[in-house]
Each structure stands twice: as C-alpha cells, then as structure tokens.
Specification:
single chain; 435 residues; alpha/beta; Rossmann fold; 2 domains; seven-stranded parallel beta sheet; 19 helices
C-alpha cells in the first residue's frame, strides 16, 4: 500500500512540478513552508534529546491542518498537558497561517511547533525519526496514506479526533474506498463529532468498534472574560468611539467583501453611527479590501494604522485578534458562507452571545449551523437585501437582538464536554488499554 501510494504521489509530482515550481517561487507563503515540509526542519536538540531515552518519555505528536483546526486543538492541548504530564507535546501544521496561529495560541503549551511533512516516503521517515512519537493525534482532517501507514508499520498508535466528513469528502472517500478503507482503519480510534458522522465513516469501511462519539471540541473553547476596560481597549485599537455601533464581518473571502460593503453603504445612509469592521480570512488581503472600500467612497483604515479621521470601515490586518473583537460587535457575520467555501466557525460570536448572520454555505459546520438556526441563534442570508434587512432589525430592535444572542450562547454552552471525552480515549491508548 505504501509503495502504491508513493508511486502515485511521485507520478503526480512529476506531472504538476512545472506548474507548482512557479507558484512556490512567487508565493511568499509557499516559500516559507516548502523546505520545512520536505523535512528540513531543524529541531532543537535541547527539546528532543530526552525523547528517545525510554518509551514513556517519547512525545505526543498533534497535527492540525490550518487555522480552524489549530483553534479546535487549543483546549485539547491544555487538557493533555495536565492529563499526561510525562509526555512532551509536539505540534505540527500544514499552512503558514496555521503556523502563526499555533505560535500565537500554543507556544507556551507545547515543546515544539513545526510544519507537517509532505506525504513522500523518505520525507515521512526522516521526520518520524526526528520526532520519534509515542502517539499521533490528528485533528479533523489532513489524512495522508503514506504517513499513517508508516506509523502503523512503526507500531505508533494514531487517533483521529474531532472527526467529520463533509458531503464532498464523504463522496470522494467512497469513490477511493480501496485506498481510504485501509488508511482509515489504521487509526486506533476515530473520535467523531456526531452519530451521523460516525455512520459516514462506517459506510466507507471503518470498523464500528473504532468509532467513538465524543462531540465537537470547538464547543469547548474558553471565552475570554472581556471587562468594560477591555472593551474600551478594543474600541481604541479599532479607532471606534463608544457611541458607534459595530457590524463585524469575520473571516471573509473574495467575493464577500463587495457584497458586505454595498450592504453597509445602504445601511449607513440610515444608521450614520454604524461602523463596518472586516477581518479577511487572509490578513494579507487587507490592502485589497481597503481599496475596495475606498472605491465605495468610504473612509477606511487598517487596524494597524494610526488615523485621526474617524473611519467608516476598519480592516483587520493582524492575526489572532478576531476572537476578542466579537465582544464589541452589535451584529456578527461569519465569512466563507456567501461564497462556496464551507463557512467558518460560528461559535466564536456565539460564545459572546452575539446575534449571528451567515450565508447559505455552512457545509464545513453543518451540525453547528443547524443547531443555531433551529434555536433562533442565527439568521441565514443570501444576498445584499437579506443582509440589509437583518442588520436593520438588529439595530432597531435591541430586545430581539439580545434574545438571538442569548439563544446562540445557550447552544454553545449546552454542547460542551467533547475535549474531556476525547482525552479519556487518548489516555486509554497512551496506557495501552486499547489498540
């Protein structure tokens, strides 16, 4: 199986190399990651020198694909440090933005943060020799055959946590079941977000006894206590005075900002005290979004800029600040949902009891979005007119707005506990009680 997977991978690399090389050379993010993902990561000998002394001192390796998966991992990492303190924790990511997020949130909780290797046999072997893990934990996705089958060959147990399959992934895995069935069964346990997700894995061919229903770890995120002083500080960082209302659009993608800006222009003609705050999913797009706002003849500033004139629009160009910004929002839009991108985590505004708006594509968060809609904790919008109507209602009916925010928070609060259940499974594996 490993030989077949690597033959396919090598064939694909040969085919795409003429296209990929210019992308690597012209993309700052790809240049930043490619050598690390080829196994040229320099691990500090001080941090890894004790990991090979005995099995009980070998590290746990946790992997999260990008920003969302890293965010979901935070409480898991913190809880594991307390539950299995004899283990060091190494944490890997696949993207540059995920790396920045991991360093921001987990630098003090892990021994090492690094880039996950490409699924090429010699690269995988090289990195596995360096890390020498006792256990591998994969968060949500980024399933690669060579890596997982090499772990199995080394008798290193692997567990997939917070697992889910989107409709497209489920269909794709079923078509490739001849590869994915043995790969998925290489996991010691698969901790799924819901019973429905568990059934999907079983339909692909995963043994039922490997499935554990533990819930969604994103519900277990800790809510920062934001005091009145903190709120004042956040507003000051945005250059938005206390008498202004804030419509916050988080994790937006190309194609969404123009809709949001057009909606805001029309809203602002009625609500002159309204300010739009846009946080692009990729902060490197901040200048592009600022130019779009200027084209609408709006006064715009980036968060990092000093500006004496009060802005109509503030564009966030800094990583790791969005979560706290929801504390000052009067309405919150969840990006990646008006365009076919699957949406982003609506629990961030729910944790602050904010009324939530998202578009029709929340396919990456199907259960959470359904819960919020069913509880009247969120409203689905499809176009400019829907956005204008919904935000108008939020601004003119404070009682209704508070009720929707309260409903969203109750959904968030009622579904916590997944991290505790997941850690219980991991501890059993670490002790050799299962697998």
């Amino acid at each position: 199986m490993i030989l077949l997977c690597n033959t396919i991978m090598l064939f694909v690399l040969i085919l795409v190399f003429p296209v990929v090389l210019p992308l690597i050379l012209t993309s700052k993010k790809r240049r930043k990651t490619v050598l690390h993902r080829l196994g040229f990561t320099r691990f500090s000998q001080q941090k890894i020198k004790n990991t090979n002394l005995s099995p009980e001192h070998q590290p746990v390796w946790i992997h999260a694909l990008s920003v969302g998966e890293t965010f979901a991992s935070v409480e898991l990492v913190k809880t594991l440090r307390k539950s299995i303190p004899h283990r060091k924790i190494f944490f890997s990511v696949s993207t540059a933005t995920g790396f920045d997020e991991a360093r921001h949130r987990l630098a003090d909780e892990t021994e090492y943060i690094f880039f996950y290797p490409y699924d090429i046999l010699f690269v995988v072997k090289k990195v596995l020799r360096k890390v020498s893990p006792s256990l591998f934990i994969l968060v949500e996705s980024d399933i690669w055959p060579t890596f997982l089958l090499e772990l199995k060959k080394m008798n290193v147990p692997a567990v997939l946590v917070n697992a889910r399959l989107s409709s497209s992934s489920f269909a794709g895995y079923k078509r490739l079941s001849w590869i994915m069935k043995p790969v998925l069964n290489s996991f010691c346990r698969i901790c799924v977000q819901s019973d429905e997700q568990g059934k999907r894995f079983v339909q692909i061919g995963v043994k039922a006894e490997k499935i554990c229903i533990t819930g969604n770890m994103k519900f277990d995120q800790k809510v920062n206590q934001v005091s009145v002083k903190n709120v004042e500080s956040i507003r000051k960082s945005l250059a938005i005075p206390e008498n202004k209302k804030i419509f916050l659009a988080g994790s937006t993608h190309p194609g969404e900002e123009s809709i949001l800006l057009e909606s805001f222009v029309r809203l602002h003609s009625t609500f002159s005290d309204l300010v739009l705050v846009i946080a692009p999913r990729n902060p490197d797009r901040a200048d592009e979004v600022c130019r779009m706002a200027s084209d609408f003849r709006l006064v715009v500033k980036k968060m990092s800029q000093e500006k004496s004139v009060l802005p109509n629009v503030v564009v966030i160009d800094t990583m790791g600040v969005l979560g706290n910004l929801y504390a000052v929002a009067h309405a919150a839009f969840v990006g990646g949902s008006l365009v076919p991108f699957g949406g982003h985590n609506p629990l961030e505004p729910a944790a602050f009891a904010k009324p939530i708006i998202f578009g029709p594509d929340m396919s990456d968060f199907p259960e959470i979005s359904r819960m919020l809609l069913h509880a009247n904790g969120a409203i689905e919008v499809r176009n400019t007119e829907n956005i204008i109507q919904t935000v108008q209602e939020f601004l003119t009916d404070p009682k209704k707005t508070r009720e929707i925010g309260k409903n969203a928070f109750e959904v968030f609060e009622a579904n916590q506990g997944a991290v505790e259940k997941t850690v219980a499974v991991i501890k059993q594996i670490d002790k050799g009680q299962i697998c």
